[in-house]
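help with this.
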Amino acid sequence: MTTTASLTILQLIQQWDRQLLMLINFDGSAAYDRFWMLYTNGLTWVPLAAVVVWCLLRRGGWRHALLITLVLCLLFVISDFVVASLIKPLVGRIRPSHDAQVMNLLSYVDNYHGGRFGFPSNHASNGFAVATMLALIFRRPLVIFCAFLWAIGSCYSRMYLGVHYPTDILTGASIGALAAVGLWYVYRWVYNHFAIAWHFPGFATLYRHSRSWLISLTFLLSVVVLLLCSLVQQTR
């Protein structure tokens, strides 16, 4: 009885997953398609990543730069490598773009279908890992808003393009956020433990005077550039 009930609940979740995805995935305009294809491309966000790294590394001297670099590398390993190399093959859930029950009902951009497995989403995991870490470090409302807006946009792009179910996104985002919170406490403990010996500034004031507004400005300018590129390509 318990097994039957579990199967029924799982089937309901899968049904809701497909229905919600089909609401998000639709045949949009050429400009709308192009915008989300550009948004989901990691190369689009290289300038933003460079600004974030610069804001993190410019405070506290070379020892702090080394520490925060190690934290960021660990965050990437957990949020991306663990998801892609361990969880995805272990679970083996097929992407909607490869699922025979739904693949022919979805719209695709430039015939993009992604890889075979989709649970959980690397984009969601990485996006929410970065957004959560930035929120914990900078504690600036505008930075927090832009960071999570970027992450949510990345998640939406994957569903709009038809390569992830909503539960892929939710699970990936949860993994990324939890990884960031866990590493944040490790980072803070190491920082406070070696603050005096390594001549670190006080943790509470470390990023108070940093130019974190550059992160928000770079994100907003990047979105504007994406919009302009999408509109220009539509008129050709």
